Predict the structure.
Amino acid sequence: MSKTTCGLLFDSSVLFDIQNASIFGYVSIFPHKLLVTDIILSNELETIEATTLLNFGFQSVQLNPEEMSALQSYRICYNALSIGDLSCLVYAENNNNIMIVAGDRDLRALALQKHIRVHGSLWILDELIEHGIMPTPKAVTALELMLEHGARLPKHECDMRLRIWNG
């Protein structure tokens, strides 16, 4: 399956969900470019090695000087967001065809306010099933593992998926 031109830019919380569910192998064949900012790669992934992400096909993206300047300005306005989250926002704002994949509620809300497409861990599972990459029983296990590891996902949406996926 070839990669499409849409880039999925991941925040750290979704990367931790993917790690906790042991599904990097599935995500690596997703039909999109897998992106992570160098700021997240070097500063926010205590339990995920950068080489792991790169080996699974993730590409590190850097903010240019103008984007770094915007990030610094955003730090003042949006102090509830981490520098990594802001790096996702600024990169997606300034580069075409980028979708943020994030778990952080504040980042998701701000991205939507700025008309940036944004999804989360549940969408990743849905899409992996939809594209025939992951069998439904594996998605059930993956979601259960995410929840066991403390993923902050909407309970009603998780319950609905588990009901549907378990038949």
